[in-house]
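Task 17 of the worksheet. Students: predict the tertiary structure of the chain below and write it out as structure tokens. Keep your answer in the requested format; marks are given for formatting as well as content.
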Amino acid sequence: MKYLNKIDYRLSIIFGLLALVSCGGGGNSGGGEEEIFSPTEAVLVFPDNNEECTSGVVVSNTQAKVNFDWNKSDHTNSYTLFVKNLITNTTEEFNASNDNLEVTINRGTPYSWYVVSKSNNTTTTAQSDTWKFYLAGEGIENYAPFPAELKKPTNGASISATSVTIEWTGGDVDNDIKEYDVYLDTNASPTTKLATTPNAILENQSVDLNTTYYWKVVTYDDNGNTSTSQIYSFTTN
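Model answer:
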């Protein structure tokens, strides 16, 4: 009788272990959560950065179709293409399921663009680098510079100092930037020229405390073409 009880006891242990395994208690093969990966950044391919785009399909005297192309990113189900007109500062968004998209845009116009990668499994997204290009226009032999990209002070910055460093980035498909005019004052549309310089930085510029300043940069090339940046503001305290 004692021998039978031992057998029953051992069988109960075996059946209990089997029940645990079947319910997922035996390791990762049962109820473990699947790992979710965030999408990676797309790598831009075309239109080329800081170049003139001449391969668009002409639609009219003012517009052409351009095929935007990028490398597929990992863990990605869809993309959003952002194309910004650097003259009007307006941005259009286009959804894409693949790694390219044809878009109709204005000829003879500078643009910037980037791609956001998205996944169906997470709300996390990944943004590519931002590239600039100039879409070729009819009869244009020399292009105006890209509007300067303002870097420092950042827009809306709060600065505890009586001097600031002003920095920006210029670009031109013809590589013939001559100089920059920098405007800085307390008007929402600044008209006071702070300096004319061939460099893309002005260091140790004096400012008053407790004041909101606005600044912009006008870029000139060797052929007299110009472009004007956006207007940024910062406040001293």
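Marker's comment: Residues 2-22 form the longest helix (21 residues). The helical segments are 2-22.
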